[in-house]
User: What shape does this take?
Amino acid sequence: MFKRIDAVKKLRQKQSRLFKGADILGQVRSILDQDQLKEDRIQNALQGGGDEISNTFDLDQLDSDRIYHIDSIKEICIDYRLRFLNSKLFKNAIPREAIQEIKALEKAHDIEIKGFKIMAPSKLFRLENADDPVLFAPIGNGYYYLIHKWGNDMHPLRKWIMKPFKNIVNMVFTLFIISILSTNLVIEGRYGATLSGSEMMIIFLFVFKSFVAIVLYYGFALGKNFSNVVWDSKYFNA
Assistant: This one.
């Protein structure tokens, strides 16, 4: 019924809105290198991705459609409740296609790529205690190069389902709407149309405070936080 959401397509749309008129760079050569030692080193780099690393790519050979600023990545992560974390925290195996893409990039640019990042739902990461992975490498100055995407596209309603968790304003607004609907159901089912405006307001406030209390209780109990806070957090209870 609904078409599934491609995270890269949404990221490209966000990038085009935030950074209009960007220079078009040349296509990256797709030359694969079968050297096993190089592949082992890439696997090690993926397992040890770190912070504050930039790679000296040949900008003339990069595909401009694959270059994304951290602001674009952040907005997509917040909208769809994703995380953007070091590749070493990724639980699943990195697909061979991604390894081949990395080797091709390294061959074309004559570098060893480091500092890999992955954008994916939090359940795909090994998060420390305190549906659509996308692999990036840092270029520098807040820019990242998209290397490979795998897995299924996101559910078409994921953005709307996760909207209440985007920030505290969205959560309060959602609880407000739910409380209005719940109050109407209570009044219609139990009291009919016999209540005064002040009585309905009292019931609404009671229902609203009840929903707020439930959200706060489970939020603190499970250690959850809003998407605009946790999008780049490596902690499970953040």
Remarks:
- Strands lie at 67-69, 83-86, 117-120, 134-140, 143-149.
- Helices lie at 7-18, 36-47, 70-80, 96-109, 158-161, 168-191, 197-222, 227-230.
- The first strand starts at residue 67 and ends at 69.
